[in-house]
Amino acid sequence: MAELLEIIELGDPILRQTAQAIENIQDDRIQTLIDNLLATVKQANGVGIAAPQVAESYQLMIIASRPNLRYPTAPSMEPTPMINPRILSHSTETVKGWEGCLSIPGIRGNVPRYQAIEVEFLDRFGKSQKMEMTDFVTRIFQHESDHFHGIVFVDRVESPADLITEKEYQKILTK
Ligand code: ZN
Known about the structure:
Elements (H helix, E strand, L loop, with lengths): L27 H16 L4 E3 L9 E4 L16 E11 L3 E6 L7 E8 L1 E7 L5 E7 H13 L15 E3 H8 L2
Antiparallel strand pairs: 1-2, 2-3, 3-6, 4-5, 5-8, 6-7
Bound molecules: zinc ion.
The site of zinc ion (ZN) has 4 residues, from helix 2.
């Protein structure tokens, strides 16, 4: 049975560290971490999570876009673990959109991100995969990638005025 992991929050120094690449994907510890992250992101109504958020400083993320209480308009996709991912190419166009973070509860930011990217990553079996992404899923990928470099979304806003509370965000959603 997968275990729900504690999500660390802004102020924990692990969130500001650079995460290590994973060398032995088949290691039981890594496979268990993947299962636990899948369970944790689902339970937390997240659309993505990066291993550093559970105090495991590895380049492992789950992208799990689906409509939920925190992101009612998110597209649905199969939750996908991505190991040692990198961006191969990206659009010149960036778009601003609202983000939150399970490690920064209560705050939302209007963050500019590339509109489209092509990425390469290893799946949980160690197989190399390429994926093209656009819009919201691209946003999740870039947000989670930032966690590997000690960057969080509040660092990415163009102006402090682009940070608002969850309560005010809910008002925007229902407009
Ligand atoms: Zn985050």
